[in-house]
Amino acid sequence: MVDTMALMLPFGRASRTARTTQHPAVGLPADDEVLLDAPDDRLGPALVAAGQGSYEAAAELLAHTRQQAEWEYRDRYTLRLAAFARSRPEWLEDWHAAAPHDPDALLIRAQVAVDHAWRSPARAEVLRGVSPLITAAARADDGDPVPWRIALDHARGSRAGHTYFGELWEAALRRAPRHYGCHVAALRYLGSAWHGSHRECLDFADRAAQDAPADSLVQALPTRAALAYLDDGCGPGVPPERLDAAADRALALSARFPAADLWPAAIRNKLTYVLVRLGRWEDALEQLRLIGPHATSFPWSRSSDDPLGRFLEVREEVRLRAATGTGTARGTRGGHPLSGLAERVHPGDH
Fold first, then answer.
1. Spatial CB neighbours of 232, under 8 Å, sequence gap ≥ 6
2. From CA 131, how far away is CA 133, in angstroms rounded?
3. Which of 2, 124, 160, 229 is the right S-S partner for 198, CB 3.0 to 4.6 Å?
């Protein structure tokens, strides 16, 4: 029998070489045990069902997140289901035909439209044409912040002005003042609008993190700002200690979650990327232990069309550097496997 799960789920297992690298001594899983973008136990069945042409599991999942106000899960699931629908849209079309006013189907349709427009050479113009879909999703459930995260991404891509963006941001905050996805969307808009004014971006991220509970994902926002700064060739205006402080804040957040937990894997992957850029090899190795088998496409796709392979390459480099004590002092910069990277287009990475 054909393995339906292997066919339907958009994640990968390491299979780059015939030989599997083992790392038991340092607490890392073998290369062939590492998965890319593995779904959790709730999302996996919905993706399998969608691959078989059925929308009911996705509808039930998103309805549950909306009814329980699980906004962070709802945002992640929306992004993953929309990514799947871009290549396999039949189930979403059937869903919309059966329930044209369903807030969950409208939400995914809006995300798909924005993702599609973002990849167009005429991005700004095409994005303006999808505004009605975002409006419909927002009106379908007034308490849902996720359509406003989509609207913030839309504002960045369509080069909306600060006044309009500010109105969207206030609307998002009224619905969920600690929603991480909306904060990331705002951070990315501000970075784009300020043309690389990374000090202001870090200020925004620091203020948000200081106001958030210790276990909020918003605690990782300064690291996201540091990542953008490091990938933009650095430059004046941001002292190294601010970057280390951002990483330290995310390290404290990561320590609140169990090892090999899927939920914080996205945060830990981005934190590892930043720690490598800062030359903090032992801290990076510890995050890799906590990541376990859960690699994520972002941020490794920033430097490679094979993000899983890139993750494994960097993991091996970190292991060797930590073992030899090379560059383990805080603040060491340069000479690492992520030097000189250019950002790729990612409209909705969290």
1. 196, 198, 343
2. 5
3. 229
Match 């490794």 to its residue by tokens.
300
User: What is the pLDDT at residue 192?
Assistant: 82
Looking at residue 23, its pLDDT comes to 56
3-state helix, strand, coil in the chain (%, to 5): 65, 0, 35
Question: What is the C-alpha separation between 271 and 178, in angstroms, rounded?
Answer: 20
The three-point CA angle 256-331-36 to 5° equals 50
Judge whether residue 81 has pLDDT over 70: yes
3-state secondary structure of 28: strand
pLDDT at 18: 37
Supply 56's token pair: 């009911």
Residues in a beta bridge with 302: none
Interatomic CA distance for residues 107 and 144, integer angstroms: 10
CA distance 32 to 139: 45
Cβ atoms of 151 and 134 within 8 Å: the answer is: yes
Please provide residue 15's backbone torsions phi and psi, each rounded to the nearest 5 degrees: -150, 40
